[in-house]
Amino acid sequence: MEKHKVLTIDQKESKILHQSLEKVDFSEIPKKELKELAKKMRQIMKEAKGIGLSANQIGLDLRFFVAEVPDSQGRCKFYALANPEIIKRYEEKEVLEEGCLSVPGMVGVVERPSKVIISGFDTNGRKVKIKAWGLLARVFQHEIDHLDGILFIDRTKEAYKIPKND
Ligand SMILES: [Zn+2]
């Protein structure tokens, strides 16, 4: 894994944001390195005031993302997942406005299942299965899209600029 020295987030023009990424190979990447990456990505995400960040947003070709989303009690839960997959999409759909750290200043409404079950691996290489709904389900789907090279602007009918209040 190449090291990112500066805290920069790739913008939508970047090629790596439009390609499907390589699976994390736990026999090749030491768990320690993956944990360090998760920590670093969490820091970059927080500094950018985001709630999710995928590896290709910092230029890495890896199916890996981090997310930190408040639950219904307002507590923030941190997720770092490798090789995530949506294993079940519930029928009910929800239309919500999305933004993305790689598409700054823009938002757009996207229709997605309101509830999903995903599976993946934590930074210890243990298999996890998570049932998610609401904002968490939204973030998971947005991030897994990133790993397939899809941005929300590819899914929305219309992206528009966030009005600046000054
Ligand atoms: Zn994004």
TrEMBL record:
<dbReference type="Pfam" id="PF01327">
    <property type="entry name" value="Pep_deformylase"/>
</dbReference>
<feature type="active site">
    <location>
        <position position="143"/>
    </location>
</feature>
<dbReference type="GO" id="GO:0042586">
    <property type="term" value="F:peptide deformylase activity"/>
</dbReference>
<dbReference type="GO" id="GO:0006412">
    <property type="term" value="P:translation"/>
</dbReference>
<feature type="binding site">
    <location>
        <position position="142"/>
    </location>
    <ligand>
        <name>Fe cation</name>
    </ligand>
</feature>
<dbReference type="InterPro" id="IPR023635">
    <property type="entry name" value="Peptide_deformylase"/>
</dbReference>
<comment type="function">
    <text>Removes the formyl group from the N-terminal Met of newly synthesized proteins. Requires at least a dipeptide for an efficient rate of reaction. N-terminal L-methionine is a prerequisite for activity but the enzyme has broad specificity at other positions.</text>
</comment>
<protein>
    <recommendedName>
        <fullName>Peptide deformylase</fullName>
        <ecNumber>3.5.1.88</ecNumber>
    </recommendedName>
</protein>
<keyword id="KW-0408">Iron</keyword>
<dbReference type="GO" id="GO:0046872">
    <property type="term" value="F:metal ion binding"/>
</dbReference>
<keyword id="KW-0378">Hydrolase</keyword>
<keyword id="KW-0648">Protein biosynthesis</keyword>
<keyword id="KW-0479">Metal-binding</keyword>
<feature type="binding site">
    <location>
        <position position="100"/>
    </location>
    <ligand>
        <name>Fe cation</name>
    </ligand>
</feature>
<feature type="binding site">
    <location>
        <position position="146"/>
    </location>
    <ligand>
        <name>Fe cation</name>
    </ligand>
</feature>
<comment type="similarity">
    <text>Belongs to the polypeptide deformylase family.</text>
</comment>
<dbReference type="InterPro" id="IPR036821">
    <property type="entry name" value="Peptide_deformylase_sf"/>
</dbReference>
